[in-house]
Design a protein that fits this description.
66% of the residues lie in helices and 1% in strands. The protein contains 70 helices and 4 strands. Residues 1-7, 966-972, 987-1034, 1066-1071 and 1409-1413 have low confidence and may be disordered.
């Protein structure tokens, strides 16, 4: 059952006429009868757009009734003028505009002339627009005129030259405006979209009004139309060449250039040759017309960038006519040329957006080729046959891209493969497809691939459609079982189930055609259903779950009759095979099949029970089964139905109550989530079926229908529903006793939340159950006690539920109780236990909704602001929140004052972070768009910012200390102390503390006097006796001080991040409109910069980062230029500081550069996703040059910083595919960093290398080192990172040269292990063809030599690394030469390591299954 979303009501903006227009209509309208003017007047006076649509639809019938002479009536002219003005004033997406256009399309011929005059007049006014920011509206109007609107098209035709002139002007003006707004991303994006629409409209004009151009164009090169077309062509070429524009603008310009050239070029037969020469860069100026050279000269003379060639290919494929062989031989040559250009570009264009475009354009090419080949010459059919070069290269492209990280590329690759098969089928029309050698070879290759290759599934699916399932099963009957075995991996399950669906559907169709009677069904069941039942009974948890989710519904959809076969087999063994904790058994399999069948509408529960398919006892066994998933399936059988209005039977309710007795305390989070989700579906059914019952009760005529279907009276069922829901709530509140376990609380609160949401009361609708009526003061207290849970998710659920029930909850609380709760919240906000302040925050957020809070509690804490009290327009929440924040602020300011005197006392008695946490929590639930007390909030924000700075100043010396966790004494062992001293000397940390210069061990007790606490350094294992607020003695450890300090820094960061969001996103002319000023935002930015770059404690800088991200995201969307430029300035500032290695710099060189990578990450991640990511490009260039060993810097610190920052950036998922072009450089930097003599550089290089391996091969899911999941073929690896081919080869040569030096056998090159680690992650593919430019052969001798390493692990890895580099047909020869290289017994110097390494390599080559096949 799918929970249905409520239908959104369509909003239509009404149109309004000005006073002059209304007066004109009133003059012509008649009171006694409805004429056109009175109808329009009536329409204009409506405020509802939907009603106006109804009114407009009445216009045409009225006009058709008007007489022949009415065309001369001034009233008609006036009305048509107003209709024209209205049409052009409406927005492009307003449904009124489309309705008006379709109505006017039916205008009688006699009024056409008048209407065109009116529309021409309005359009002429539109074209006089001079404001660049209003061009968008004019362009949209032009587009809508040309789309299925005869009147609009006639108007554009009449003003053809003016429209051309306007388009030229818009091209130039938008381009100029864009140049002037450089750096303003918001405005530039808007202008880019305007430009995109302008180009599209110009293309539309040429395509839809071709006859206007054709008449006067060719003969007079001086004519206005020709000059305008030249101008448009020139501008489009400039846009195509301009890399600073959005990629969509460039792509569309590529289409425009080809379209305009096609329109202007003569003779048309020569056009394909011109485009071919353009793409191949072989254009001869003597053969090209003068006008083309002068407008598209840059395309002819310069070396075209790869992206421009790509967009031109797209233009040619989309704009030229490929069907019916209309372009002749030249067209066929162009088709083949485009393919070769695209394939050569595939090895050059690695940026994610370009890779996506390329795959899409290759798919378009295959479509064009399919169209061309139908009527193409025999020569073309030979060139596009499956065995041809071009198809071979395309297959190579498919094999290297079918596991591409971008989903869009994978999808296009599948389309390309599918189309290639169709192209081949067209070339062999007439011969037997099933025995075709090309298809046979493909199937054999694909089946020899491992099942973990995702591309294998889609490709086999495409082949099944060509040759049929039976042909594939003849090669291997175990394929269905093999695919089902793969389904224990969730990443492969969807692919596997899709392939199985294609295969069994095709197989069923084949059997149905081949056999007249249904004798084939048993054979079909043996192949597709029997293996499934075995796995369902005995398979592991994951495998059975994914098979039930992905495969079973598809199987039942294809063959619903198979259900009875499955149930018959499972019932026979259900009593004997009950399953265990690890397996479902036949009972579990039966539950899963019945659940799926009911959910997809194949069976009803009443039918199941009456036919004896399942008994109540059997379902009960399932509901308390020791295997979690069997319980869930049994519950799903009760809750999930195909129709959401199916009535819930009494038996179902009893079984649900039985289930809730035993299963609310499940320890598994996923099971708890599924229970909540399934019960929600049940409540939805009760709610929706109750509405049906109420309607039936009202409509007594349908009583008989109901009696036939349910045999129960509607009111009786509704009463049962009410009793059932009431008993469910009783059970849920019963288990929420103080001290109940977390799983129980979580389940109960989740289910109660669903009930509150499902049975909320819409106005005027009867409701079967209301949770409010089940609530009493004890239950409110129970929910409030849930705030005390140490698990935040329980607090969140309890808070959400109380907010839904807040009216009834407050009515049940007397003022004394509220006062006690408020007092408790204030006390908890200053507790030394971190989770107490979270409880305080939820309590306060709940209490601020209480109308009487001011009078009950806040009166005795704060003096009243009578103005605020008297202002009735202020909401309760706003008034109370302001007062609560004020109270918390007063307290925290006092505590900061005390903490300045003694940080130890603050840590022990009143850690300040709790108060700040409560302030942030209160601010986050406040609706800032609707605040009334703006002046008070401004003052409050200023005070909060000031308080944050003061608090930070008190605690920051601790978190910025070089050893904030407390002092770690030096090693007493002189050798290790010397080593440590040497490392410290290498990195020379610039630090205000003197820990590095001299070892200290503090043993004496610390005095509490404030002067002794000048540097606030925490002390480990030191207890300081001191008196707390209540004069009791308490011990303070270094850990307590540190917790107080870093949590305070964390809360300050989150508070400042929240405050930054208050800056209005669209800065109006009045910056005072926001609650926070531009100056304050700048200061907050500087604060974050200071603390991210200075903090040493991970907790402090990680959370400062969370606040800083909120700030940077706001800056990128901000309209204030000075703020928008700040991220770029901060970024260049910090990169300069890193490069300068200034001795006075306080950047942290230890702790993986502490907060510096976080700082840079936040700045880069805030760049708009669709921008050109200039900051990222600049930063990566700087960092890679800093990290490279060629960088002759006197200090190693910049290099360490660069490596640490690179690691953070490669790990950041938000940078996504934008970071992939730098992976190859990153690998080079990491491998070369290993050769550094400095330990810190080697350490950072290791971390960077590890991050890159994960980035390239994916996150490792299993423990198997040799698993092929996190690997890729050698071809795919080197096609994605071509620059690594020569680099790895060179490094391997260097490494093997050190191995072979006879003198020092144990001298091992530091990069050996890394190189083998990468090469070992590759694997051979039977698809490795002969089309790749990169040969694997040069690696082989070097890897063989690595097998002679004295280190066992290196020999083992060299064995594994050799496999992908040896072609399948070369394996026997390579193994022979390896064995021949072994020394004989008479050799004078036999090295066991060499012999062992050689044998390992031979074993690896033989052990690889894909090679043997």
């Amino acid at each position: 059952m799918v929970l249905k979303k409520k239908k959104r009501e369509i909003q239509v903006d009404a149109f309004f006429l000005d006073q002059q227009q209304l007066e004109k209509l009133q003059r012509f309208s008649k009171a006694e009868e409805q004429n056109l003017a009175s109808l329009l007047l009536q329409c204009a006076q409506l405020n509802n757009g939907i009603q106006q649509i109804q009114c407009i639809k009445k216009i045409m019938p009225l006009v058709e009734k008007m007489g022949q002479n009415s065309a001369c009536d001034p009233m008609v002219k006036a009305c048509l003028d107003i209709l024209g003005e209205t049409y052009f004033s409406l927005g492009a997406k307003n449904p009124l505009k489309k309705v008006l256009a379709s109505s006017l399309n039916g205008l009688p011929e006699r009024f056409m002339m008048l209407a065109v005059q009116s529309f021409v007049c309005c359009l002429r006014e539109e074209l006089k627009t001079t404001d660049v920011y209003l061009y968008r509206k004019v362009l949209e109007n032009l587009a809508s005129c040309m789309e299925d609107f005869s009147l609009g098209r006639a108007s554009v035709k009449n003003l053809f030259e003016e429209v051309l002139q306007f388009l030229q002007k818009s091209f130039l003006d938008i381009q100029e405006e864009n140049r002037q707004n450089h750096g303003n991303h918001v405005v530039q994006t808007q202008l880019m979209h305007d430009l995109l629409i302008a180009i599209k409209v110009s293309m539309m004009l040429v395509q839809k009004l071709q006859e206007n151009i054709q008449g006067s164009l060719w003969k007079h090169h001086e004519s206005f139309v020709w000059q305008s077309m030249c101008s448009l062509l020139k501008s489009s070429t400039n846009f195509l060449m301009d890399a600073a524009l959005l990629q969509t603008v460039q792509t569309t310009s590529g289409l425009a250039v080809i379209l305009f050239t096609k329109t202007m070029y003569e003779p048309a037969e020569e056009l394909p040759s011109l485009v071919s020469d353009l793409l191949l860069g072989s254009i001869k100026h003597t053969d090209v017309p003068e006008w083309f050279l002068s407008n598209c000269g840059t395309l002819c003379t310069e070396e075209c960038p790869d992206s421009v060639l790509l967009f031109l290919c797209h233009g040619a494929l989309a704009m030229l006519e490929w069907k019916n062989g209309s372009m002749g031989e030249n067209g066929e040559k162009l088709l083949l040329d485009i393919a070769s250009v695209l394939l050569s570009l595939s090895s050059e264009l690695k940026e994610s957006s370009m890779a996506m475009s390329l795959s899409r354009i290759l798919a378009i090419w295959t479509n064009s080729a399919q169209a061309a080949i139908v009527s193409g010459s025999p020569n073309l059919k030979i060139k596009l046959n499956g065995n041809s070069d071009i198809i071979g290269k395309l297959l190579e492209y498919i094999y290297t891209h079918w596991e591409h990280p971008l989903d869009a590329v994978r999808h296009q690759t599948k389309l390309i493969f599918k189309n290639l098969l169709q192209i081949h089928r067209t070339t062999i029309t007439g011969s037997n497809e099933k025995s075709d050698p090309f298809f046979a070879r493909l199937i054999k290759h694909l089946l020899s691939l491992e099942w973990h290759v995702k591309g294998k599934y889609a490709s086999l699916g495409c082949l099944v459609e060509c040759v049929g399932t039976e042909n594939i099963l003849q090669l291997d009957r175990t394929i269905p079982v093999q695919i089902l075995d793969v389904m224990n991996d969730q990443s492969l399950a969807p692919y596997a189930s899709d392939l199985l669906e294609t295969m069994f559907t095709n197989h069923k169709a084949h059997f149905t055609l081949s056999f007249q009677e249904s004798t084939w069904i048993d054979q079909w069941h043996d192949i597709w259903v029997s293996p499934l039942l075995v796995i369902l009974c005995e398979g592991n948890h994951d495998q059975t779950t994914y098979i039930i989710d992905y495969y079973l519904p598809k199987l039942l959809k294809c063959s619903p009759d198979s259900l009875s076969y499955m149930i018959r087999i499972l019932q026979a063994s259900a009593d004997a095979n009950l399953g265990s904790r690890g397996t479902r058994g036949a009972l579990g399999a039966l539950m899963a099949c019945l659940r799926t069948a009911r959910a997809h509408g194949h069976l009803e529960l009443s039918t199941m029970m009456s036919n004896g398919l399942v008994s109540t006892e059997c379902i009960k066994q399932g509901l308390v089964h020791q295997h979690n998933q069997v319980c869930i399936d049994a519950l799903g059988l009760l809750c999930e139905t195909h129709r959401s209005t199916e009535i819930v039977s009494k038996e179902e309710m009893q079984l649900i109550q039985f289930f809730m007795m035993y299963n609310l305390n499940s320890q598994s989070p996923s099971v708890r989530q599924q229970i909540g989700s399934l019960l929600r579906k049940l409540f939805c059914r009760i709610q929706e079926s109750s509405q049906v019952l109420y309607k039936l009760e009202q409509n007594k005529t349908k009583q008989e229908l109901l009696e036939n279907s349910t045999k129960r009276h509607p009111l009786g069922i509704l009463q049962q529903y009410k009793d059932f829901m009431s008993s469910v709530c009783d059970r849920l509140f019963e288990v929420l006793f103080p001290g109940s376990s977390h799983p129980t609380r979580f389940s109960a609160l989740t289910i109660l939340g669903s009930i509150a949401e499902m049975f909320s009361v819409p106005k005027g609708q009867a409701q079967v159950f209301q949770l409010d009526q089940e609530i009493d003061s004890t239950r409110v207290r129970t929910l409030i006690q849930c705030f005390a849970s140490t698990f935040e998710e329980v607090k969140v659920l309890a808070f959400g539920l109380l907010m839904k029930l807040r009216d009834v909850a407050f009515n049940l609380q007397d003022s004394e109780n509220v006062d006690l709760l408020f007092q408790a919240a204030m006390d908890l906000s200053t507790s030394t236990k971190p989770y107490d302040c979270v409880t305080a925050s939820y309590l306060l957020n709940f209490l601020v909704h209480h109308k009487g809070l001011q009078h009950i509690c806040l009166g005795k804490w704060l003096e009243h602001n009578s103005q605020v009290d008297e202002n009735t327009s202020v909401s309760t929440v706003e008034k109370n929140t302001l007062a609560v924040i004020k109270l918390l602020l007063v307290n925290v300011e006092e505590e900061i004052f005390q903490a300045k005197k003694s940080l130890l006392q603050a840590a022990a008695s009143f850690p300040m972070y709790g108060r700040v946490h409560c302030i942030t929590g209160a601010l986050q639930q406040l609706p800032f768009n609707t605040l009334t007390l703006v002046a008070e909030w401004k003052e409050m924000v200023a005070r909060l910012i000031l308080m944050s700075y003061k608090l930070s100043a008190v605690v920051s010396p601790v978190v910025q200390s070089s050893s904030p966790e407390g002092l770690i004494p030096m090693d007493s062992d002189s050798e290790s102390a010397g080593r440590l001293q040497m490392i410290l000397h290498e990195i020379q940390p610039q630090d205000t503390n003197d820990y590095f210069i001299q070892a200290k061990i503090l043993k004496e007790h610390c005095k509490v006097e404030s002067e002794k606490l000048a540097d606030h350094r925490p002390m480990d294992n030191i207890c300081t006796e001191m008196r707390g607020k209540e004069r009791q003695t308490c011990d303070v450890t270094a850990q307590m001080v540190l917790v107080c300090c870093w949590r305070s820094m964390k809360e300050v960061s989150l508070l400042l991040g929240t405050l930054c969001k208050l800056l209005p996103s669209h800065a109006t002319s009045e910056p005072s409109d926001g609650l926070i000023t531009v100056e304050q935002v700048k200061n907050i930015g500087d604060y974050f910069k200071h603390h991210l770059l200075q903090s040493r404690h991970r907790g402090a800088f990680e959370l400062a980062y969370a606040g800083f991200v909120q700030l940077t995201e706001m800056l990128s969307r901000c309209n204030s230029e000075s703020l928008r430029k700040m991220p770029a300035q901060w970024l260049s500032g910090v990169l300069e500081e890193i490069k300068s290695c200034d001795p006075s710099s306080t950047l942290c060189a230890t702790r993986r550069s502490a907060g510096i990578p976080f700082y840079i990450q936040a700045l880069l991640a805030s760049e708009p996703k669709k921008s050109k990511t200039d900051l990222l490009k600049m930063t990566m260039k700087e960092l890679i040059s800093l990290a490279a060993p060629l960088n002759e810097s006197p200090s190693v610190i910049p290099k360490v910083h660069a490596l640490n920052i690179l690691r953070a950036l490669f790990r950041d998922t938000r940078l996504g595919e934008n970071i992939m072009p730098y992976v190859a450089d990153g690998i080079q930097v990491a491998i070369l960093g290993f050769t550094s003599p400095v330990w810190a550089v080697r350490n950072s290089s290791t971390l960077l290398f590890s991050a890159l391996i994960t980035r390239i091969f994916g996150v490792k899911r299993g423990k198997d080192e040799n698993s092929k999941k996190n690997r890729m073929t050698g071809r795919e690896f080197f096609s994605r990172f071509p620059s690594l081919y020569p680099f790895l080869l060179k490094q391997l040569e260097v490494v093997t040269n050190t191995l072979n030096s006879e003198a020092e056998e144990l001298k091992i090159h530091p990069s050996l292990f890394l190189l083998l680690l990468i090469l070992g992650r590759l694997y051979p593919s039977p698809m490795d063809g002969t089309y790749s430019a990169l040969s694997m052969a040069p690696f082989v001798p070097f890897i063989i030599r690595c097998g002679h390493s004295p280190v066992y692990r290196s020999r083992e890895m060299s064995g594994r690394a050799l496999v992908p580099f040896v072609m399948v047909n070369e394996v026997p020869h390579t193994v022979l030469s390896l064995l021949e290289g072994l020394p004989d017994s008479t050799s004078p110097c036999i090295r066991q390591n060499n012999i062992h390494g050689t044998l390992l390599q031979a074993k690896s080559l033989f052990g690889d299954q894909s090679c043997l096949s």
